[in-house]
Amino acid sequence: TATCAKLACGAAIRATEDVLLGKCKNAFALIRPPGHHAEPSKSMGYCHINNVAVAVELMLRRKQAKRVLIVDWDVHHGNGTQKHFWNNPDCLYFSVHRFDGGAFYPFSKDGDLDQIGGPNAMGRTVNVPWPFGGFDDGDYVYVWEMLLIPIAKEFSPDIVVVSCGFDCQEDDKTGGCFVSPTGFAYLTKLLMDPAIAGGKLVLVMEGG
Hints:
Family: Belongs to the histone deacetylase family. HD type 2 subfamily.
Distance between the termini: 19 Å
Strand order of the largest sheet: 1-6-5-2-3-4
Structural class: alpha/beta
Keywords: Chromatin regulator, Hydrolase, Nucleus, Repressor, Transcription, Transcription regulation
Number of strands: 6
Pfam families: Hist_deacetyl (PF00850)
EC number: 3.5.1.98
Main location: nucleus
């Protein structure tokens, strides 16, 4: 497990760095195990190393990026990623997830509407918590067009990194949502807008 987790994290780092350096326009890190539940002090939910958090943190420390937008569309809230960047104004974490009042995994209130970032980064955490299952393409596209895209353009990141979980897709019985392959394609296309990070986009596999 440790070897696989380190290889997965290395792939996420390489994909993010290659897009930032212009070696490729976009990248998709098809990796396992996933990462977004892994917190700074513990592993959770099949996640041992937070691949996205490590990759983004490294790009910021190396000054290869000044600002990074992380979009998490996995059906579960990325509690680990949120905690890592909670007080960092250089990273904006945006998550759309099933919440059920905190009764859906990871079973906490961290993904609620009022969780907006620490004292140095207020507004840099944006949660869209679905109150139950059943949300579909139209719901996700509405959130993208009315909330995420305007915020992304205002934040003006150097790159967009997606915690790309597919457990909100229509055939996943655990997630209970109904995003189609066409829906995922359209959400991705919206994030590749040249007005947002010049179209620099990295997808990093999570769950589902």
